[in-house]
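User: Show me an example of a complex going from sequences to structure tokens.

Assistant: Sure. Here are the input components:
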Amino acid sequence: MNLLLLEPAEVRSDGTSVVSAWRARHLRDVLRVQPGHEVRAGMVDGGLGTCTVLALDEDTVTLKCTFDVTPIRPSVDLLLALPRPKVMQRLWAQMAALGVGQIMLTNATRVERNYFDTHVLEPDNYRPLLLEGLQQARDTHLPVVSIHRRLKVLLEDDLDSLCPNGARLVAHPGSKETFTAALGTNPAHQRGETRTLLAVGPEGGWTDFELHLLAAHGFAAVGMGGRTLRSDTACVALLALLHEALR
Amino acid sequence: MNLLLLEPAEVRSDGTSVVSAWRARHLRDVLRVQPGHEVRAGMVDGGLGTCTVLALDEDTVTLKCTFDVTPIRPSVDLLLALPRPKVMQRLWAQMAALGVGQIMLTNATRVERNYFDTHVLEPDNYRPLLLEGLQQARDTHLPVVSIHRRLKVLLEDDLDSLCPNGARLVAHPGSKETFTAALGTNPAHQRGETRTLLAVGPEGGWTDFELHLLAAHGFAAVGMGGRTLRSDTACVALLALLHEALR
């Protein structure tokens, strides 16, 4: 645990918090804290700082929290054609760790419709995984997740309000354009708009129709060499490249 | 299956090959091949090309193979502090898909010794996973795997013969150096040596002693921003960044 992440409701108005269950056990048995010790901590969608251990007993740890640093919200958003459930499940924590502001999951021609009916897309399933990723990367910004059953409706009706500004890129195996080059010539990026939305297709790729639709809505193609990668590998690699290009 | 990958022993001297079991079923039921159809194919550690379907029956597919393209061996090698078995198991296929010439797995202070005693490091376990990654990425170069119980012995006695030339980089969360910048000033890279060896530490990081030892053996530090990532996410992200910097 690189960061003790607390929900807003877990922190009282005087800044104290009592944690129990696995977090108490981790503090006591792995980090071996004692009263007076400080641990790195943060509040979900809030600040970063430290918690000082006030007291420990068998089941709980009482902490005094100070969250005095406001972490920067990741400037990258993701529009992802829904991968198969097993792959999606592996991605939640990794996306949150790499840093994503918004995750829009969409249908596409080469996405199987029954992928949308799994527990993998339930908040009760993915929220703990996103928090795990945030704790790994010491961030507090929980990615905002939305699920879209029709790509065309998303692009035509919803995207401008979900992502009102910023550069739009679409990862396309056929493109020779690097992230750095694509951002360098991007009008939104040149205007100083700080957010970047990256669209990542399904295992079998976007169809030509979908690529045209994305292009018509301002998505410029970027590539990363000739190798075809599994969705989760591609997604991690692409997010890393985009963050690096924005660094 | 993006590529039908055959072992050298599976291809007769006249270029024909008979495949059975899951590959025959995949050709017949998923790709729905018929006599005369061509499929993309390759030979492990050999060429790339096509196989033409000669005949099908209930259990087998007979093919005529032409391997006329020699793929370029990935110019990246990896020296990886052995992650915990579950994470290592997830990495095999991804490393092969991203493209790695050699994988040297090593002990380090923050690696638990019992990680070395798992079936995850048996060739019978990892070879099929590496092949899966090659088939995904349409490559034929099977990464060469070696296992090293002592980092110091590896660096002092074995590394110069395993990796006789090329740039050496070590990923270090504290470094602000990008891959592009680090390669730009690297003497081996400037001399035109084409290989690059990347060292990736354990979950808890290299110790100061290990970092000094790596530096003494020519490893220059590179970073990728302030976020701490799980070993497998970090490994995929770092390999993607290195390949991109070499592109």
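The lines above are the inputs; the final block is the predicted structure for all two components together. Chain A has a mean pLDDT of 95.
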